[in-house]
Amino acid sequence: MTDFPFENRIWDSAETAPRAELERLQLDRLRGLVSRLADVPFYKNAFAEAGTSPEDIRSLDDLRRLPMTTKDDLREHYPLGFLAVGRDKLARIHGSSGTTGKPTFVAYTAADLELWANLCARFLVAGGLRPEHTAQIAFGYGLFTGGFGLHYGVEKVGAAIVPAAAGNTQRQLTLMCDLQTDVLVCTPSYALTIAEAAAAAGLEPRDLPPRFGHFGAEPWTEDMRREIESRLGLLAFNNYGLSEVIGPGVSGECALRDGMHVQEDHFLIECLDPDTLEPVAEGEQGELVITTLTKEAFPVLRYRTRDIARLDRSPCPCGRTTARMSRVVGRTDDMLIIRGVNVFPSQIEEALLHVEGTAPHYMIEVDRPGTLDVATVRVEVREQDFSDKMSQMQALRDRIDREIQSITGIRMSVELIEPQTLERFVGKAKRVIDHRVTDSS
Ligand code: DLL
After folding, report:
1. Considering only CA atoms, which residue is closest to atom 28 of ligand 1?
2. Which atom of ligand 1 is nearest to the CA of 244?
């Protein structure tokens, strides 16, 4: 018997459909999607070039014959060249945060918004949200899909919402304590910022009302989960999504927190080698490529997410039959190649969290002063561990140095800095400065 930390509630019976039934539904929906896409100029051309037509889709394996979509394709059809319905059918337009270049826009019909709310409700309920709860949403409300996406998901479950939005951390604490919010929704890095502000205000984890946290929108590690849980005194759940696909709601953890259940009745997910674009072996790490099966306004076919993760199709004791994706270890465009070795920022985070005495606040800077790459990790020392004694600080630096080397395989220069000196984040954290890229562009 599996022990659940709380009642294992399922929002929608579709989440537990037998795999054969699910796959029949997927095939049916894929065929419908391909016919709808034949009216979108980009796909019409891509189908013609690839010589495929909707009639060619006889099994789910035929997906592999269909063309892919990239972020650049969306950019080239800026602002709304991918619309599959008339403007009169639109109910909402969101934008991708895009750190480089123009933003990309994504659109929703009323039916898409209803679907989105239900998909968010599924993972929220799986992660403990109940109608009697009050949820504090500390995501940005705006073009970013985090705020509104989670807002309507919580509303769908029937819980009360405090739409706090991101920022004003002192006020987040006041709202949390005065309104006794049960659930906190934000990015993991903002959860940490809130935890730090709570400690500075003399609040103990047990003084903080939230018992559940739903965090997503950026990579984080298992160690970071433990850190957030112990500092905020809650159970932390991971959820994943991206605006081009729908926003939050693509996948999320159940009470067992052993991978995020992908909502496969609405999204086909592939895990491919990013270089060869061939499927990786089951359980291996690869780039996630997602097809939206049911979205009306802005469907995408085989969208290359650039997110690196693993898929697990083994049954989960919670009863959901859907595949589970691992944490995202990083993005193909976040991956640093330092002296030929591939390093993800999440590996540095993992190393730092293994070393007692450092705060999980860090910045990675990469440069190439001559012909060799030099990576510097600046990391804050915890208040209580900061010391004027050179020998103590040197020993701490050596421990970090060894841990980074053992996890990444390469040496980096480690700089210890005083507590509270690095930037704090209210949305997605930005922890890498790569001068090799910025200085040459
Ligand atoms: O971040 C949607 C979202 C909002 C997801 C709120 C979860 C909660 P974008 O701004 O388009 O959309 O960014 C999408 O963020 O491709 C991943 O690289 C990253 N990401 C999202 N969730 C996770 C997660 C939203 N749980 C990009 N773990 C994605 C790791 C995540 N990375």
Report:
1. 219
2. 11
